[in-house]
UniProtKB/TrEMBL annotation:
Gene3D superfamilies: Aspartate Aminotransferase, domain 1 (3.90.1150.10), Type I PLP-dependent aspartate aminotransferase-like (Major domain) (3.40.640.10). Homodimer. CDD domains: AAT_like. It comes from the Bacteria. GO terms for biological process: L-histidine biosynthetic process. The keyword Transferase applies. This is Histidinol-phosphate aminotransferase. Its EC number is 2.6.1.9. Keywords: Amino-acid biosynthesis, Aminotransferase, Histidine biosynthesis, Pyridoxal phosphate, Transferase. It comes from Hydrogenophaga taeniospiralis CCUG 15921. It catalyses: L-histidinol phosphate + 2-oxoglutarate = 3-(imidazol-4-yl)-2-oxopropyl phosphate + L-glutamate. The gene is hisC. The lineage of its organism: Bacteria, Pseudomonadati, Pseudomonadota, Betaproteobacteria, Burkholderiales. Belongs to the class-II pyridoxal-phosphate-dependent aminotransferase family. Histidinol-phosphate aminotransferase subfamily.
Length: 366
């Protein structure tokens, strides 16, 4: 029996944390896994063997050292890092988002982002004790410029997140609108973080804007991840921006946040970037196949995509989700994430065979 006089060991755990729901990961054993925007292609047996040799030779008895610097240099070369810009590494983009909230935790600071959007923007604000302001997208999932500007002027957020393309809607937003939002943030010293998690599948990158007009983007940080590149299991994100800004955020990074195994995997992948670029091209082709097939299904509305996922509205999202799952196809039911996503499913673009299973199963469950 519990002694009623014994203090509860949870007493010092914040009440808001005890009231939270943990990030849910669906059980995908034995399923066609189309729920998490992963690259569906694995390495060839030849590259698997080469990677195994590389990882076997890593000095795992030592803390990460110079190899991390090698990775930063390789990434800087891969993205053609603009002059005057720095780059830092994170244990996935999630860690970078947390570090940004920590760095900007000054009295009265807040974080702002369009909704629906990536859940970690709001969660990072909550965990750091910052206010979060969500601004709904338009019915067509575009940025509501007037509402965004009004919210920015009212709250003067320390950080405004712009996902480019967005999750879960998968679309790119109007560059002219984004330029005006960046300019607005600059009037009160606010940061704008361009989150390019899905860049391998996108027709545009904000890095071109940064190169073309660095002065107008002096308050912009750009995040990317190797998860969608093809290394979701490796957990490696990176962020670039003006050297002075990156230098300050980098002070918060745990000294050994990226393991030597993660770093070696990432270096190996960058050395074989052509293989991953070919995989991304296949995914973009399959995205078109999937959207065209969805558009032919009665009652299904697929939305434009510049990512490796397709948002689709169906007559009954829960019924379709359950029916697909019963047929061995796992997708993401996002219909309750936000009112604008009513009856929407998010479908990861898989291999041709996986997409064929999804296209064959969905009409049966509509």
């Amino acid at each position: 029996m519990t002694d009623m006089n014994t203090p509860n060991p949870l007493r010092f755990i914040r009440q808001d944390i005890q009231s939270m729901h943990a990030y849910a990961i669906q059980d995908s054993a034995g399923m066609v896994k189309l729920d998490a925007m992963e690259n569906p292609f694995s390495l060839s047996p030849e590259l698997q063997a080469k990677l195994g040799e590389r990882l076997g030779a890593v000095a795992i008895n030592r803390y990460p050292g110079a190899r991390i610097d090698d990775l930063k240099q390789a990434l800087a070369s891969y993205v053609d890092l603009p002059e005057g810009h720095g780059l830092m590494l994170g244990n996935g983009s999630d860690e970078l988002i947390s570090l940004l909230a920590m760095a900007c935790d000054v009295p009265g600071a807040s974080i702002l982002a369009p909704l629906p959007g990536f859940v970690m923007y709001a969660m990072s604000a909550q965990l750091q004790g910052l206010a979060f302001h969500g601004v709904p997208l338009t019915a067509g999932f575009e940025l509501d410029e007037a509402a965004m500007l009004a919210a920015m002027r009212a709250h003067r957020p320390a950080i405004t997140y712009i996902a480019y393309p967005n999750n879960p809607t998968a679309n790119l937003w109007d560059a002219a609108v984004i330029r005006r939002l960046i300019a607005e943030a600059a009037t009160f010293g606010g940061l704008v973080v361009m989150d390019e998690a899905y860049q391998p599948f996108s027709s545009k990158t904000w890095l071109d804007e940064i190169r073309a007009n660095p002065a107008a983007n002096a308050n912009v940080l750009l995040m990317r991840t190797l998860s969608k590149f093809g290394l979701a299991g490796v957990r490696l994100g990176y962020m670039l921006g003006p050297q002075a800004l990156v230098h300050e955020v980098d002070k918060l990074r745990p000294p050994y946040n990226v393991s030597v195994l993660n770093a070696e995997c990432a270096l190996f992948a960058l050395e074989h970037a052509g293989v991953f670029a070919q995989q991304a091209a296949h995914i973009r082709e399959q995205r078109s196949v999937l959207i065209e097939a969805l558009a032919r299904m009665p009652g299904v509305t697929p939305f434009p995509s510049d990512a490796n996922m397709v948002l689709a509205r169906v007559p009954d999202a829960q019924r379709s989700f359950d029916g697909l799952k019963a047929r061995g196809v796992l997708v993401k039911n996002v219909s309750k994430m936000h009112p604008s996503l009513t009856n929407c499913l998010r479908l990861t673009v898989g291999t041709p065979e996986e997409n064929a299973q999804l296209i064959g199963a969905l009409p049966q469950v509509l």
